[in-house]
Write a structure and sequence with these properties.
Blueprint: H1 2-26, E1 34-35, E2 39-42, H2 58-63, E3 66-72, E4 77-78, E5 91-97, E6 101-102, E7 115-117, H3 128-131, H4 153-159, H5 162-165, E8 169-171, E9 177-179, E10 189-196, E11 200-203, E12 208-217, E13 221-225, E14 232-238, E15 241-247, E16 257-264, E17 267-286, E18 290-291, E19 295-304, E20 308-313, E21 316-317, E22 324-331, E23 335-342, E24 351-359, E25 362-370, H6 395-431, H7 437-440
Parallel strand pairs: 2-3, 3-5, 4-6, 5-7, 11-17
Antiparallel strand pairs: 1-2, 8-9, 10-12, 12-15, 13-16, 14-15, 16-17, 17-19, 18-19, 19-23, 20-21, 20-24, 22-23, 24-25
Bound molecules: 2-acetamido-2-deoxy-beta-D-glucopyranose (NAG) (8 copies).
One 2-acetamido-2-deoxy-beta-D-glucopyranose (NAG) binds next to loops.
């Protein structure tokens, strides 16, 4: 039996080792690189890399914070998916390689990248789209054959005086070099956007037309960002102008923004307008009272402009004051969430509560019946507990406590009674003339100090 178990254990260990081996293998470092948990380094010139180094396990790649690539003669490109799993990458160095292209989406998943060193590669062009979302103060770019072309002008705009500090040059068509900071080209400017009208206020179900004009050189591309809209729309673009026709506007789009985006090789610009969609109130929630610090009849009301709220108690206007009042505690996109708050309500407050919500475009009402306390004449007592057990969350605990006390007292009482009984039995047992000798059997241990005559 034992040996069988041991065999089992050894098999299990063996399996563990195999799995561990597999796991290690799957996280393996590319042959010509060295890796530890947080760093990948590829500096071997002879057995160089051709593709961006990848580990076979996604999870291992997430741990990597630094990648260092140097002296690689066959490394040319960083593509869309190469850095996809290096989500926590902070430092990237690619230097002295043949790196020629970096895709627009190469760093899309690398929001934590802080340090980017691309010195001494073969980059003629680098797009702002590759780096636009990164939080890098200055990428290091010197030693690349960057062209003095409009595609690279954004680098001058981004780096400013830093380009002189890095001694960053660009290459003119004839092959001459000149400082980046002196780069200025005709017909090369980041785009501008004009969106009109600047305000849109429309009643739900209505329609609106937005017009966007863009300018810039080279000629910018025009895009609308309407991805989050629920309302129907149509776009009509011609040349540098576009119309966005919104129809059957939905109240769900109230507060959302519509943007017109212009982009060219130099950069991008955006203009936005927030939709103000007017709609009648709707009470989306009104529920039974709950007790927190105060009593609260919770409600949610949608509506634009903000609805005026009024309460009726059993059909009669409820005056609000120090003890009863409406409190709004949260405002989301379209809705106001709040409470009718009551301080120490009594049976007098039992009844039907009606919420009226009103604005320029309509009104809504809903009712709820709340019962705070039993009436004093019911079952005779004025101090009956509240109906809602939420009020006294600690009651069960107290009950448990008192139950425990009862149990202890009970046990003590039983023990004490037993003790007394025993004494009586001992006493009477020994001197009994009532024939309860039998009981003595329970105490037949020798009692030398006081040997009773009967036991002899
Ligand atoms: C990985 O290696 C680098 C230098 O080679 C070292 O600074 C770092 O502490 C190492 N990290 C781990 C987790 O071993
Ligand atoms: C990143 O590079 C900078 C500059 O070389 C260095 O100071 C920093 O320690 C590096 N950070 C990491 C996480 O390797
Ligand atoms: C460097 O890049 C240019 C294109 O930008 C290409 O024609 C050239 O072959 C590249 N040089 C090397 C050594 O790969
Ligand atoms: C950008 O990086 C700096 C440090 O380099 C950091 O202090 C800052 O919080 C970062 N900002 C964002 C939005 O990540
Ligand atoms: C469109 O707008 C949404 C939010 O309004 C934003 O998250 C998204 O990035 C925008 N898309 C583009 C392409 O600008
Ligand atoms: C698009 O706009 C042009 C000019 O503004 C107009 O002539 C054309 O009829 C419009 N097309 C549609 C489908 O609305
Ligand atoms: C307008 O939108 C509402 C829902 O948002 C839909 O029920 C209605 O059919 C739409 N009307 C038209 C004319 O498309
Ligand atoms: C125990 C007792 O008397 N319960 C009564 C309390 O009052 C309600 C109605 O008011 C009766 O239905 C219960 O029988």
């Amino acid at each position: 039996m034992i040996s069988l178990r041991r065999g089992h254990g050894m098999a299990r260990w063996g399996l563990c080792w195999v799995l561990l081996g597999l796991w290690r293998f799957s996280a393996a470092c590319p042959a010509s690189c060295t890796c530890n948990n947080s760093r990948i380094s590829c500096t071997d010139e002879d057995r160089g890399i051709v593709y961006f180094p990848l580990l076979q396990s996604d999870i291992k790649m997430e741990d990597v914070t630094e990648i260092y690539i140097e002296n690689q003669n066959r490394f040319f490109a960083i593509n869309d998916k190469d850095l996809k799993f290096y989500r926590n990458l902070r430092n990237l160095t690619v230097t002295n390689t043949k790196l020629t292209t970096i895709s627009h989406r190469a760093f899309q998943n690398n929001g934590k990248l802080q340090y980017l060193n691309l010195k001494y590669n073969n980059l003629s062009f680098l797009s702002w789209k590759s780096l636009r979302h990164l939080n890098i103060s200055f990428p290091l770019l010197s030693g690349n054959p960057l062209q003095c072309r409009c595609e690279n002008v954004w680098i001058r705009q981004w780096l400013g005086e830093e380009s002189d500090r890095q001694e960053l040059d660009c290459v003119e068509d004839g092959g001459r070099r000149r400082p980046f900071s002196k780069l200025s080209l005709p017909d090369c400017a980041s785009p501008t956007v004009k969106l009109s009208p600047s305000r849109i206020s429309v009643v739900e179900g209505g329609s609106a037309v937005l017009v966007c004009h863009v300018a810039g050189a080279p000629r910018p591309q025009l895009l609308w960002n309407v991805s989050i809209l629920v309302s129907s729309y149509e776009v009509n673009t011609s040349n540098l102008m576009s119309e966005l026709c919104l129809s059957n506007l939905s109240s769900s789009d109230n507060g959302r923004s519509v943007s017109c985006i212009a982009e060219n090789v130099v950069g991008e610009n955006t203009a936005s307008v927030v939709l103000d969609i007017l709609f009648p109130p709707e009470i989306t929630k009104l529920t039974d009272a709950v007790s927190d610090h105060h009593w609260c009849i919770p409600f949610s009301v949608a509506g634009n402009p903000q609805p005026e709220l009024q309460w009726l108690f059993n059909g009669i206007t409820l005056p609000e004051g120090d003890y009863i009042g409406t409190k709004i505690h949260d405002t989301s996109e379209n809705e106001y969430h709040g409470c009718l708050q009551l301080d120490n309500p009594t049976h007098v407050n039992n009844g039907q509560y009606t919420l009226l919500a009103k604005n320029k475009y309509g009104q809504d009402e809903k009712s709820v019946t709340s019962h705070f306390m039993k009436e004093p004449w019911e079952n005779g007592t004025a101090t009956d507990p509240l109906y809602y057990d939420t009020t006294t969350e600690d009651t069960p605990l107290e009950q448990e406590d008192s139950a425990a006390v009862y149990v202890v007292v009970g046990i003590a009482a039983v023990a004490f009674t037993g003790f007394v009984l025993m004494l009586i039995i001992l006493k009477f047992g020994r001197n009994s003339k009532f024939g309860i000798k039998g009981f003595v059997l329970f105490h037949n241990s020798p009692q030398p100090s006081n040997p009773g005559p009967e036991t002899r």
